[in-house]
Specification:
This protein is mostly helical. The protein has one domain (2-119). The protein is 52% helix and 0% strand. Helix 2 (14-25) runs antiparallel to helix 3 (35-51). It is elongated.
């Protein structure tokens, strides 16, 4: 039923399919986006392509997502997951598995659960004239040392 409605009221011609293909290939994970939003965009584009028989295979989506996520705040995390997968001889079977791995790394690092990036805090600057206290635990007389 849904297919019939889509075909009648929202047909995807060649230009629309090319536009969707371009959109999925140039998708980015923006700093203010949750990982789930990025995942949902991928799923949405691929679902629309599925309606006309032009959907991408899961391994291609995973590869595409890894290259796109490497350009985001998850660059080090995606590299860590790839190294871990190589060590265990496994690969990501789906985009969901990839995103779940990134979410788990966020939890391990104490970050919000796959949420948007927060602005980085400014490093504390120590003034040059600021005096600091140093406590000395013990003092040894140099004349008592045996040379």
């Amino acid at each position: 039923m849904i297919h019939a409605l889509v075909n009648k009221f929202n047909p995807l011609d060649e230009d629309a399919v090319q536009s969707l293909m371009s959109s999925i290939q140039t998708l980015e994970l923006l700093d203010m986006e949750d990982l789930s939003i990025y995942h949902d965009k991928h799923e949405n584009f691929n679902l629309q392509l599925l309606w006309v028989g032009q959907d991408m295979k899961e391994f291609h989506i995973v590869y595409l997502a890894q290259t796109q996520i490497k350009k985001s705040r998850y660059k080090k995390d995606i590299e860590a997951l790839q190294i871990s997968n190589i060590a265990f001889g496994v690969t990501f079977g789906s985009l969901h598995e990839l995103c779940t791995g990134l979410e788990r790394l966020d939890c391990l690092c104490g970050l919000p659960y796959a949420s948007a990036a927060t602005p980085k805090s400014q490093p504390k600057v120590i003034q040059k004239n600021q005096k600091s206290l140093v406590f000395v635990a013990a003092v040894q007389d140099s004349s008592s040392l045996d040379w």
